[in-house]
């Protein structure tokens, strides 16, 4: 920066502001462009080791999350890495597959002395250590959290399926998924119930797909509508069911979650939710960096409401969708 300042005939502080993206409103656009041009011409690169020593930071964010076995998580991994890199931070990912592996996943990033952590879950050590953190899909007192507002969004889906005439509504989810209890409560208000054989436990892994399908197809009194964990699960069900001769949605209406690009063109086009994962990623990254820059701010809880997208995979029980 000292050499760039001499070449541009400005102070080193001016160069620092420009290269760190903090010059707007303080330094003219023409001068900013001149400094950036010189930096590119002379192959300027930030010495992160020196910067870390000077600022007493690692410029690294640990991300503790489940293995990205579905498209939703895989997309989030790339988005978080790109967004953090644009802000000058390295993303350090640590994945867990089983609940008992969460502590190990946390230790893997904590031992690297990361500046903060974005986490899909809570472990006791994380709370005890007091490291700056943001939690996804959790509501932790005194901590920054970003979560989905499932209640209103799924009430809309439940009312839609009920209005089509579905009284046998099932769900594919993790046992502790809040959407399962929301469905149970909705059916209770309608004078109905969520039968145990219509609740399908699913861990969202490729190897658990086959047993799930066998359980579904072995149920004698099958549900007429099925709410799935995500679009990947819905696609597997429709593909496997179609190979067995099942007709969708005439025999089984299916709804997903994520709004993957292919769900609009699959047969039938999938009713699903836009999960707003771009907005979710922005909030998670912005929150952890804001916490690092302004640790005195009160904790913030951000909710994102998924948007229901109605397509062809749901219709009245036993009827063609276009009737």
Features:
Rossmann fold, elongated, 3 domains, 323 residues, 12 helices, alpha/beta, 6-stranded parallel β-sheet
Quick rundown:
By secondary structure, the protein is of the alpha/beta class.
Polypeptide structure, described:
- By secondary structure, the chain is of the alpha/beta class.
- It has 3 domains: about 1-45, no CATH class; about 55-150 and about 275-305, Rossmann fold, CATH 3.40.50; about 150-275, Rossmann fold (3-Layer(aba) Sandwich), CATH 3.40.50.
- The chain contains 12 helices and 12 strands.
Briefly note the CATH topology name of the largest domain: Rossmann fold
> Element order, helices and strands?
HHHHEHEHEHEEHEHEHEHEEHEE
Sheet with the most strands: spatial strand order? 2-1-3-4-5-11
Q: What coarse outline follows from CA principal-axis ratios?
A: elongated
- Helical content band: 40-55%
Question: What is the topology?
Answer:
Blueprint: H1 2-8, H2 12-19, H3 29-41, H4 48-55, E1 60-66, H5 71-86, E2 90-96, H6 102-110, E3 116-119, H7 124-129, E4 133-136, E5 144-148, H8 150-164, E6 169-173, H9 178-189, E7 199-201, H10 209-218, E8 225-227, H11 231-243, E9 253-255, E10 272-274, H12 277-293, E11 301-304, E12 307-309
Parallel strand pairs: 1-2, 1-3, 3-4, 4-5, 5-11, 6-7, 6-8, 8-9
Antiparallel strand pairs: 10-12
Helix pairs in contact: 1-2, 1-3, 5-12, 8-9
């Amino acid at each position: 920066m000292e050499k760039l300042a001499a070449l541009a005939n400005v102070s080193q502080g001016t160069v620092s502001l420009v290269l760190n993206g903090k010059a707007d409103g303080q330094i003219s656009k023409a001068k900013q462009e001149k400094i950036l041009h010189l930096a590119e011409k002379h192959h300027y690169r930030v010495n992160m080791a020196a910067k870390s020593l000077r600022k007493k930071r690692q410029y690294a964010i640990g991300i503790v999350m489940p293995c990205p076995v579905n498209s939703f998580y895989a997309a989030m991994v790339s988005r978080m890495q790109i967004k953090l890199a644009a802000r000058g931070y390295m993303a350090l990912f640590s994945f867990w597959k089983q609940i008992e592996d969460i502590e190990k996943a946390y230790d893997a990033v904590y031992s690297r002395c990361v500046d903060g952590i974005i986490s899909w879950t809570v472990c006791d050590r994380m709370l005890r250590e007091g490291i700056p953190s943001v939690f996804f899909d959790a509501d932790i007192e005194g901590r920054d959290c970003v979560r989905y507002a499932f209640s209103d969004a799924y009430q809309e889906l439940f009312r839609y399926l009920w209005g089509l005439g579905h009284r046998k509504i099932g769900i594919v989810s993790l046992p502790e998924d809040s959407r399962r209890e929301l469905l149970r409560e909705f059916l209770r208000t309608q004078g109905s119930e969520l039968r145990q054989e219509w609740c399908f436990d699913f861990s969202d892994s490729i190897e658990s797909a086959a047993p799930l399908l066998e359980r579904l197809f072995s149920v004698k009194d099958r549900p007429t509508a099925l709410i799935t964990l995500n679009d990947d699960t819905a696609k597997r069900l429709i593909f496997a069911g179609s190979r067995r001769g099942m007709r969708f949605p005439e025999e089984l209406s299916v709804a997903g979650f994520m709004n993957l690009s292919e769900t609009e063109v699959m047969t039938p086009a999938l009713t699903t939710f836009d999960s707003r994962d771009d907005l979710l990623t922005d909030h998670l990254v912005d929150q952890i960096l804001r916490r690092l820059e302004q640790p005195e701010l009160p904790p913030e809880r951000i909710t994102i409401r998924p948007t229901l997208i109605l397509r062809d995979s749901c219709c009245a029980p036993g009827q063609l969708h276009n009737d």
